[in-house]
Amino acid sequence: MIKIKELSRLYQIAKTIIEYGLIDLAPEGQIPKSYWLLRTCLFWVSPKHQDKTTPERLRLSLQSLGPIYIKLGQMLSTRRDLLSPIYADQLAYLQDNVPAFDGEIAIKQIEEAFQKPIQDIFTNFDKVALASASIAQVHTATLKEDGREVVIKVTRPDIHQTIVADIQLMKWLAGLVQRFVKQAKRLRPVEVIKEYEKTILDELDLMREGANAIQLRRNFLNSKVLYVPEIYSDYCTKNALVMERIYGIPVSDIAALEAQNTNFKLLAERGVEAFFTQVFRDSFFHADMHPGNVFVSYEHPEDPLWIGIDCGIVGTLTNEDKRYLAENFLAFFNRDYRQVAQLHIDSGWVPADTPVEEFEFAIRAVCEPIFEKPLSEISFAQVLINLFNTARRFNMQVQPQLVLLQKTLLYIEGLGRQLYPQLDLWDTAKPFLENWMMEQVSPKTLIKKIKTKAPFWLEKLPDIPELVYHNLAQTKQVQQQQQLLIQRLNEQQSRNSKNQVITALAITLSIISTLLYLQDDGKINLYLTVPAVISWVLAWRFNK
């Protein structure tokens, strides 16, 4: 049941659509009838901001609706192959140019988080935010104890209540969609929203973000691909986080990167390498790599190094998910559509009774025209969209655990193509995946797995004889129970058979005695009536 707060939020969304004139985004002549119903119901709301362009109004509307919608805009801003440049440029402002809240409020929150006056912890604290995003903003300062330059990340006031209200509304709407729109059940909107709820609420906890950053930094320590700033764990709380200050060029500042002669091809390829390394080597990946969270080091532009910040959202995959993903990617790269179809069935992503040949043909029809283009012109986003449209006919279900991975891959491709339009995502990723697959069956990996499992096996080794004995004893007991059950079933079947025979006899005698009764003008034939009554009694007792 929708609550008052959720109704209020729904009204705010509808009001925003009207005030910012977002109906202009609909193709000409295709305005849905529901919009006119909405305008009639909210007759007192009038369009505003008509002096601004449609892309500006879209950006401002998402900004006014809050964190969840800002994040949607952030993701869309990286998809320049799907959006026109004027829309992508406007949405890019949402990456780190969200209006900041007052510095005095930030100081108050930091002092509450650390239970100390700010001057006891930092010097040179800048009240003007260095950057401001949808959930938090950062300020620069110097750590008083050792003079290190740091940035302090602090969450927005009352952000938790706003996000909870939005999530509850989205869950309510997802429930309605899943219940009344048959085509939407395949997308499992309720499960997707629940997964997103967990992700966004985790992002509100800056202690969790600090732990994520420490893990990611450890995974790429001394790497030439990715650098993660150091987290000062002594200064981590739920609402405030202190980390090393880094100096880099925003990845979206193409002019600055060109000015220092950055190797764009290598930079784009290393972005792809960083993503696949996180997913397949570490099973732990940064899932919010929009341009506002990614920088390029000033040092060695000919050998560029990525810098990743804001680890509030991370994703993990099971070994089974990784294996199926790697096999699917390789099958696509090799244009082995039969293998793609079979993998989807084996993994349970489509129903087990799906005809493999039909599914293979449908995938081939989608992918072959795409592969006729030069690989550098193929958009993975477009491939995903076409595949999802095709899979709809085969009742493919969305995998909630893969939603973050899909989003991150689209981010990476968007960034890569923005830096180096000729980026060949397929050719860059294929060698990495082939090597990873080979490593999974290599003697080195086998020995490593044995070493990992050896302590557990050694611990259990003395218990094996006892476990074997108990297993054999349990097997014998199960066999006895099965025999007893079979005997009881046989007895029940025998009783049922007798009951059926006696019931049939009772029915037959009753019919005959009734017919004779009618024929003899109401004279009861005891020779038939008595056996009929006895037969009914016996049938009742057998049934009981």
Observed structural traits:
alpha+beta; 12 strands; 4-stranded mixed beta sheet; extended; about 550 residues; about 10% strand; 6-stranded antiparallel beta sheet; 20 helices; 4 domains
Explain this structure to me?
The protein is an alpha+beta fold. It folds into 4 domains: 4-92, no CATH class; 103-260; 261-439, no CATH class; 467-543, no CATH class. Helices cover 59% and strands 9% of the residues. The chain has helices at residues 4-19, 33-41, 54-65, 67-77, 85-92, 103-114, 159-180, 189-203, 206-219, 254-259, 264-282, 319-333, 337-346, 356-371, 380-391, 403-419, 425-440, 443-460, 464-519, 526-543; strands at residues 122-123, 131-132, 136-143, 149-155, 226-227, 231-236, 240-244, 248-250, 284-286, 294-297, 306-308, 314-316. The strands form 3 sheets. Strands 1, 2, 3, 4, 6 and 7 form a 6-stranded antiparallel beta sheet that branches. Strands 5-11-10-8 form a 4-stranded mixed beta sheet. A hairpin with a 3-residue loop joins strand 2 (131-132) and strand 3 (136-143). Helix 11 (264-282) runs antiparallel to helix 16. The chain is extended and about 115 Å long. The mean pLDDT is 79.
Produce the secondary structure layout.
Layout: H1 4-19, H2 33-41, H3 54-65, H4 67-77, H5 85-92, H6 103-114, E1 122-123, E2 131-132, E3 136-143, E4 149-155, H7 159-180, H8 189-203, H9 206-219, E5 226-227, E6 231-236, E7 240-244, E8 248-250, H10 254-259, H11 264-282, E9 284-286, E10 294-297, E11 306-308, E12 314-316, H12 319-333, H13 337-346, H14 356-371, H15 380-391, H16 403-419, H17 425-440, H18 443-460, H19 464-519, H20 526-543
Helix pairs in contact: 1-7, 3-4, 3-5, 4-5, 7-8, 11-16, 11-17, 12-13, 12-17, 13-14, 14-15, 19-20
